[in-house]
Amino acid sequence: MANEAALAEYKAIRSEIEQLNGQIFATISSSLTLNLAILGFFLEKAPTSYVLPTVGIILLFFGNLILLNRNRGAHRLAYFQKYFIESRIPDICWGRVYFAYRPEYDKRKTILTDLSERLAESGTWLLVFSALINVIVLIYFGYVSKTLGPGEGINFFVACVMLGLQLFCTIVMTNYDPIDQTMRALAERAQIELDN
After folding, report:
1. Alpha-carbon distance 46 to 142, whole Å?
2. Residue 190 · residue 84 · CB < 8 Å
3. For 104-158, how does the pLDDT look when each residue is reduced to its tens digit (9 = 90+)?
4. What is the three-state SS of the chain?
5. Using CA atoms, how far apart are residues 54 and 139, in angstroms rounded to an integer?
6. What is the rounded distance in angstroms from the CA atom of residue 118 to the CA atom of residue 32?
7. pLDDT tens track for 164-189
8. Which of 114, 132, 181, 185 lies at 20 to 30 Å from 34 by C-alpha?
9. Are 60 and 131 in contact (CB under 8 A)?
10. pTM to 2 decimal places
11. Helix (H), strand (E) at residue 68
12. What tens digit of pLDDT does each residue of 41-91 get?
């Protein structure tokens, strides 16, 4: 009976993780599409619409926050599965394998495979890279037009701050060690309570 309850919980968690993965794909796709549309419009109107790449960076930032939030939710569920379900049903091993993969992969990686793995595993870096392209576009058109005033300077400053903020959030929010440590501690505490 306990295994049936754990199996039902496992199915619910897997379903929720799949739902989060769908939201992640939708967020990446819509953020990139919207940014490309903004850049296309900017290139048509440049340099009179100098603020548009910055608007794209701001939209990419908010898309990245949604993406990071969904990734953390998926990791929280996967760690729950690893510590609370897979310990009761040894035949289920998705969480254990998923989290054991990275250390094992790191032993065999090269620079190129590491880069491809990082890009494949996280769309957040793709959104950061897209925001960087927007900053490069601003620099290029600012250099070409040479008629930029203080407003454009402020716009460029805002673009750089938003890119930096996006990079900072990505670095901080992709550290899943606290989630792992918390779930492990909760599982150990639950086991102690069951033993008493």
Report:
1. 10
2. yes
3. 777 777 766 666 666 556 788 889 999 999 999 988 887 776 667 788 889 999 9
4. CHHHHHHHHHHHHHHHHHHHHHHHHHHHHHHHHHHHHHHHHHHHHCCCCCCHHHHHHHHHHHHHHHHHHHHHHHHHHHHHHHHHHCCCCCCCCHHHHHHHHHHHHHCCCCHHHHHHHHHHHCHHHHHHHHHHHHHHHHHHHHHHHCCCCHHHHHHHHHHHHHHHHHHHHHHHHCCCHHHHHHHHHHHHHHHHHHHC
5. 12
6. 18
7. 999 999 989 988 899 999 999 998 88
8. 114
9. yes
10. 0.81
11. helix 52-80
12. 998 877 678 899 999 999 999 999 999 999 899 889 989 888 888 888 877
**What letter represents residue 62's amino acid?**
F
Extract the tokens encoding 119: 């890009």
Tokens of 148: 């930029």
